[in-house]
Amino acid sequence: MTRLQLRYLAHARSGDKGNTANVGLIALEPGYYPILVREVTRARVARHFKGMVSAVERFELPNLNALNFLLHDALDGGGTISLKTDAQGKVYSTALLRMEIPVPAALARRLRPARAR
Amino acid sequence: MVRIAAGQGFWGDWPEAPVRQVRGGPIDYLMMDYLAEVTMSIMQKQKSRDPRAGYARDFVPLMERILPDLVERGIKVTSNAGGVNPRGCAEAVLEAARRRGLQGRVKVGLVSGDDILGRLDELIGRGHPLNDMETGRPLSDIRDQVLSANAYLGMAPIVEALRGGADVVVTGRVTDTGLTLGPIFHEFGWSPEDWDKVAAGTVAGHIIECGAQASGGNLLRGWRAVKGMANPGFPIVEAAADGSFIVTKHPGTGGVVSVPSVTEQLVYEMGDPRSYITPDGIADFTTIRLRQAGRDRVRVSGIRGGPRTPLLKVSIAYFYGYKAVGTLVYAWPEAYDKARAADKVLRQRLADLGLGFEQILTEFVGVDATHGRLSGPPHPDIPEVQLRIGVRAREREPVERFTREIAPLVLTGPPSVTGFAGGRPAVEEVVAYWPALIDRREIEPGVRVEILEA
């Protein structure tokens, strides 16, 4: 096993609901979805965003090969109150794609060169 | 089959989009969503200064531009452009129709009854605390600061207006999805208690309510391959009588409609996917099936739903305080260290002045503004860093004073600083959002649909 950034396995979009950001994490290939389900756990995402959010919820959408994460208290008050550049949580999506998860070394070797393409 | 085209994803979206939707190919309905969470309060403020204002003003010149096309092609419009003054908006559209010589040829459906600002004390008095859905606080805590209060209405009044022969339906706070559900239910004559059909129409509405965000705009997956975005095709739903639908766009337009583009929009602003709640019903997003059915065509089917709840959401906006954001740019070498030193100096000055802020937030654009500590330390040779510092207070005075402390840093702080040509930052009023719930029986009897003729 080796560690691979989620950007090679998934794409994502995020938005807001009050002071909560959501990140929809979508597998780039259906075959990657079980890896996401297994490795991108609620607890790991909470650790990834430690100090930036208060709590994390996770929901599964196997029909879309997607996971949905709710990141509570992620927006510094949210909406119009927040002073953040990203007051609406638009780029929490790619912040999650920075996360590294363990994957088989062969898969990582196959996907990493995508960076150069 | 009924075709519903998205014309605006928010108030301020691309002005050409609705025109190209109408002229670029066959559609039956043009759906235009103008209302975000705090838009109503902005409109309320405009209305308090001018009783004829309080709606999305740009909707009227747009209608004036495209009404002859709409009439000629038999295209109808559903829009919540009416904001807090749907009557004023409807009358302005009628005047626009007359200016285009369309007397007797345009009917406007006016939906009202969502505005409960004048009923708040009565409702609180009768035992509706209108607690904040996020914090649980009762509305009485901020009652004096309330600027607008509107219940989210669903598709019912839109269906009624279309049944009454309306060509343009103008509403206040109707849900984004209701603007799409209304035409579909009207055309197919479905029962509003066919919950799977409600869920299907809700998903269709959710997919197109943000305009081009479903058809290549803001698409992360393969973004370099998305072509023609100078002329993006906004999404169109082709709804079928069995509840399934196709998402597509006009031929010859840019962007892309693909399973990834639709999926990214589906997860946007999602909560619990099994329970997407609207006034019309509950959609289960875990039942959605997507299939590429041709170039720029995605078939959506299989959607299941459940009954609507006895509650309606209420959107309340209230005055919160003031904020301002100032920026300065620091150049190589040691750009980040200079920006950090400037932040330290500024914070010391603010502290020495004894100004009371609720919050001071510093971001270093180029280093940590979007992803915080996850970005790691910046490159030691980073060419420039923007210092972005924001403050918020309940009173105006400290924020006003803060705006005079940015420019002086240019001559009294760390070197290699530029980017202050804009002068003092503006003091902004903060209007905050208070989402609440109310028994729908308090609202629905007061909803009115009128058909007005040009």
The gist of it:
The complex is a heterodimer of chains A (117) and B (454). Chain A has 117 residues and is α+β, with helices and mostly antiparallel strands. Chain A is 23% helix and 32% strand.
Explained architecture:
The complex is a heterodimer of chains A (117) and B (454). Chain A has 117 residues and is α+β, with helices and mostly antiparallel strands. Chain A has four helices and six strands. Chain A has helices at residues 33-39, 42-48, 92-97, 105-111, and strands spanning 2-5, 10-17, 20-27, 55-61, 66-72, 100-103. The longest helix of chain A has 7 residues, at 33-39. Chain A is elongated. The mean pLDDT of chain A is 95. Chain B is an alpha+beta fold and 454 residues long. Chain B folds into two domains: 2-114 and 152-309, no CATH class; 316-434, Alpha-Beta Plaits (2-Layer Sandwich). Chain B has helices at 17-23, 39-49, 59-73, 86-99, 120-125, 156-163, 178-188, 195-208, 259-266, 335-352, 396-403, 409-412; strands at residues 2-8, 29-32, 76-79, 107-112, 146-151, 168-170, 236-239, 245-248, 276-278, 281-284, 289-292, 298-301, 304-306, 311-331, 359-365, 384-393, 417-418, 428-439, 448-453. In chain B, the strands form three sheets. Chain B has a ten-stranded mixed β-sheet with strand order 11-12-8-7-1-2-3-6-4-19, with helices on both faces. In chain B, strands 5, 14, 15, 16, 17 and 18 form a six-stranded antiparallel β-sheet that branches. A three-stranded antiparallel β-sheet of chain B has the order 9-10-13. In chain B, helix 1 (17-23) runs parallel beside helix 3 (59-73), helix 3 (59-73) crosses helix 4 and helix 7 (178-188) crosses helix 8. The radius of gyration of chain B is 24 Å and the shape is globular. The two termini of chain B are 29 Å apart. The chains are: A alpha+beta (117), B alpha+beta (454). Chains A and B meet through strand 2, strand 3, strand 4, strand 5 and helix 3 of A and helix 9, strand 14, strand 15, strand 16 and strand 18 of B.
